[in-house]
Amino acid sequence: MAKWHFWWEKEFSDVYENIYVRTFVEDWFNIVQITANEVSWPKILDIWCWEWHTTKQILDRIKWDYLCDLVEPNKNALINAEYFLGIENNIWDIFNNTLAIFEPKNKYNSIFTSHTNYYWAFNENDYKKQLDKLFWLLENKWKLLILTLPEESDHYNIMLRQIYPKFNYSDYIINYYKSIWLKTRTIRFKMRMYIGDILTTKSLFDLKSFYRFIHNTDSYPSDKEAIKFLEKIKKYQKDNYLDFKDDLIIITN
Ligand SMILES: C[S@@+](CC[C@H](N)C(=O)[O-])C[C@H]1O[C@@H](n2cnc3c(N)ncnc32)[C@H](O)[C@@H]1O
């Protein structure tokens, strides 16, 4: 898996490996299918596609002709994305950029972005600039699709401390676009994560890996910190699953 080498202050590596295994695939592919159904015009942009997986899952389910541009800040991830998506999907142009410095050659009819808003900005003002920028990248009849977590997500419930500022929550995004008179519609999904393995072992390795993912850190926690985290997981789990939930925010003019 490619590592990313920018924003060194926040850099962490290899923490996604176990997360894909935990996701309840029926929940995720329902999200993918409905997102694909909502992408409805030909010029598409995927903001921060990482290596290709989610992008391919969505593009594969679009039934009409499209052209899709990719923006991704990690160069190696983008190289992989261009290669793998080039086999079966209609990729138009690729851009090795952050959202803040991305300068498009064209404007788009549909923009989608899946679980990337947490990394757009360090402060609220810069974050609002990115929300405005997305709007500026669109033209004519358009749709902006942002997939992100709601405040009620178990992802946020089990954190031992606030990691992501509240402007990352889906409600903030919805209210922001409403405040500038755009139309918003939100589809709330289930997104369950299996943690039964963590609950049935005395070993701490998987618990600590999961801790790193949830707390967006490269460092492994102490045993004491990991046990505190386990208590939170136990509190919120239902039948060996956490429900991260997911909101698809659909913004139109
Ligand atoms: C959670 S992945 C989502 C990727 C893809 N859209 C998907 O849904 O699978 C996060 C994306 O944000 C980018 N990113 C930027 N800064 C990041 C950071 N500090 N930590 C993790 N990802 C970061 C990564 O390059 C990656 O494309």
What does this molecule look like?
This protein is an alpha/beta fold and 253 residues long. It has a single domain, classed as 3-Layer(aba) Sandwich (Rossmann fold), CATH 3.40.50. It contains ten helices and nine strands. The strands form two sheets. A seven-stranded mixed beta sheet has the order 3-2-1-4-5-9-6, sandwiched between helices. Strands 7-8 form a two-stranded antiparallel sheet. Helix 3 links the parallel strand 1 and strand 2. The longest helix has 14 residues. The protein is globular. The N and C termini lie far apart (38 Å). The site of S-adenosylmethionine has 16 residues, from helix 3.
Gap between N and C termini, in Å? 38 Å
Rg of Cα set? 18 Å
Q: Superfamily at the CATH H level? A: Vaccinia Virus protein VP39
Overall number of strands: 9
Quick structural overview:
The chain contains ten helices and nine strands.
